[in-house]
Amino acid sequence: MISPALTLAHSAEPDTSLEERYGAHNYASLPVDLVRGEGVWLWDKRGRRYLDLMSAYSAVSHGHCHPRLVAVAREQIGKLAVTSRAFHSEWLGHFLARACELTGMARALPMNTGAEAVETAIKAARKWAAVVRGIPDGQAEILVMENNFHGRTTTIIGFSSNEHYRAGFGPVTPGFGRVPFGDLRALEKAIGPYTAAVLLEPMQGEGGINIPPPGWLAGVAALCRERGVLLLVDEIQTGLGRTGARLACDHEKVKPDGLMLGKALGGGLLPVSLFLASEELMQVFGPGDHGSTFGGNPLAARVGLEALDVLEEENLAERSRDLGAYFLEQLRTLEHAAIREVRGAGLFIGMELDPAWSSAAHFCEALLKQGALSKDTRENVVRLTPPLVISRAEIDIALQKIRAALDSLEPMSGEPSDR
Ligand SMILES: *Cc1c(COP(=O)(O)O)cnc(C)c1O
From the alpha carbon of 263, which atom of ligand 1 is closest? Predict the structure, then answer.
């Protein structure tokens, strides 16, 4: 699989003119035109090969075009792909059963994108507040974290602390309060009589790969139980092996009332998401209360089921734990002046740079020239989140490319800053 073009420089001359001309300019994509993927590798149209350190924000945890996933998708797409939930279909029950079995949740509701799973959780929590807790309709409050990222719908961006995600898109949906991430005392103080739920990411992805203090999540779970408040955990990015456990919740043996999965659930092939919940929470939905035309279609259910089976049978969570520990340890030995901190859990790693040396976006361009792809999150954090099928030898290649990219940097100002 080694392309002769590998020796060519990875220079930036993509043909993006049609995207530029006809697309909305809502992404600042790196200048590379990808045409093929296999495992942890991607190829551009000139045949140049790149190591994927991005995994499409964890959607490609199984690696590109995993042969088992491609095989079941091919078979299913030629047999039955979309029926709508107006009828029962062959794979949905098996998919939901496996997802419940692996997460310890009672029931699951299929959607497509992550944001839809989060919207489902919000609707479930509000209805539960009204029918179970007796909170007057329209008064229920959901507490979220500073620096959260739960998607891009109008309701979700309304409770973002990121001004850029929100600015100009008002009016915002009321009914949300924000507390600092990782601060149990602040959460305790914020819970009021109409607080129905706490919605959080157990580790923040888009917020900058933020790992909370040990014990925080278990403390939140205990607090929620004590106060009769639902705990809704968004594992759309951290779930399915990414942080070195099947769920990030498993690190602290936390069992939430509601759980959101997405991204890797589609096996890197198509959008598949789930809202999973306890019996008490899911029973608030009756026919007509919620739905999705494509949610739970036979193709998505078949691929989602296979994605869960591959995760287990290839021990992707254990690989993520062991290889992530190795990657993190090796990154910490790089000791380049441009690196301010390296943090993470499993193959969910962020490298924070000193802005006096380089912005994370600039570093990602330098990395592209070395033949590795990633993207910045926040201004100074570089995301290092390869597919979980990566090998140790490929991590060593990643380290060489990261070192070469660091060595190509020159401090942007004379004095490295100390903040
Ligand atoms: C990506 C992400 C979402 C949104 O998923 P989409 O499929 O883009 O709608 C929600 N929550 C978290 C934690 C995410 O990382």
Answer: 7
